[in-house]
Amino acid sequence: MTVIEALVQSLGDAVLTGDQIGQRYRSDASLSGRSLPKAVIRPASVGDVAAALKICNEYRQSVVPQGGMTGLAGGANPNADEIVISLERMTGIEEIDSDAATMTVLAGTPLEVAQRAAEEAGFLLPIDLGARGSCQIGGNLATNAGGIRVIRHGVTRDNVLGLEAVLADGTVLSSLNKMVKNNTGYDLRQFFIGSEGTLGIITRAVLRLRPLPAGRLTALCALESYAYVVALLKRAQQQLPGLSAYETMWEGYFGFNCAAEDLRFFETLPAFAVIIEQDTHGRDGERDAFEAFLGQVLEDGLIGDALIAQSEKEAEAFWRVREGHALDRLPSLVNLDVSLPIGAIGNFADECGTALCAAFPAAHVSFFGHVADSNLHIAFSGPDATAGMLHEVDTIVYALVGRYRGSISAEHGIGILKRDFLDRSRSPAEIEVMRRVKAALDPNGILNPGKVLG
Ligand SMILES: Cc1cc2nc3c(=O)[nH]c(=O)nc-3n(C[C@H](O)[C@H](O)[C@H](O)COP(=O)(O)OP(=O)(O)OC[C@H]3O[C@@H](n4cnc5c(N)ncnc54)[C@H](O)[C@@H]3O)c2cc1C
Question: Domain total for the chain?
């Protein structure tokens, strides 16, 4: 019996082959996937996932877990001889425990669905990113996703209390813990968070919920230098108790997106534009305090100007520029995602921009980032970009990241696209320990081989 026959015998029409396999299983949002897999399994339960993995392990069949396919590192892309396990049918909120402030959710649930369910129960699910409509909770955990609320509530890892995962041999590891404190040996959930489908398939999670803010105050500030960006961040962290976003746009990025959206916020284009956002809880004086803060930093010369959104529509206009969807229309756009010590980001961006523009004079290069989380994004687009040219871009940027002792991936993960650069951010000893963990949990190497580790 072939592996496909064994899977069909066990899982029936949950197994798709041939023409039943749609194009969406080919590539994640990096658009770097080239092949359709030889089969797609769409389990409906953890039992199905366990049965599928047990068979694949016996046949030494490589498996690629897929969530919402919004990843940007090629981590969910299959080869033609691999089998995809897609979590798309395992959706639903199983429980909201309002005493523990937790949500138990199936891994295939889209993030936005989970966010809405939390809100209806009077809570905030703090994991949030632009791909919220399509990405899944399992994918968010597997990539340890970041996003725009990290400054207040941490990365995905910080908002997971428990999880259930199926190991390569079909063992179901259920650690659906709801407690914040639980010091009983190794924290097994952390092996799977950020492992990009290489150590197990996540099937359920217990997520931590927070009080739902009553509203948000949003301002757009104009600054003259990166030193002021850092100084303003420190002041905001000290003086704005509910600071929930601090997003920085360099002049090139801000100017490009304002022009594309036909928006003009300041008389002259500032060197830096920062969105500051603060959660409110319906208490008197919150808006006055926010305005007073901005007035003071203006008087102190940290900012040259500030606009406070008077309506949700105005706040959305600030965010539209930050989200930068107009950039998607540029040819061969890549969004590099790196981390650096906060104080070094300004110099890094200057050096990186100079190096990229010297190598590719016709390219668009611009910078934006979650500076408070030490995260910088680099938007690069070359009119006639070839794969070789994009590899050279990676080589230039990651060599510089290595010199600044930064990280080649702040939030998108390693997947396949950054795999060959892992040693710019991790020592030989760290990579060797990762290999040992992989060998212990997946001795036959069937789970997402070639991703993260070569
Ligand atoms: C418009 C846009 C905005 C984005 N913004 C951000 C952002 O602000 N911050 C950020 O961090 N990322 C961002 N991303 C990247 C992406 O959305 C995240 O990495 C997201 O967490 C991926 O989730 P997914 O369900 O789409 O996973 P997929 O792309 O399907 O998979 C990602 C990886 O996780 C593995 N995987 C998926 N599901 C499981 C599972 N159940 N068990 C085990 N492994 C699994 C896959 O094998 C793969 O290695 C953005 C992407 C887009 C397109």
Answer: 4
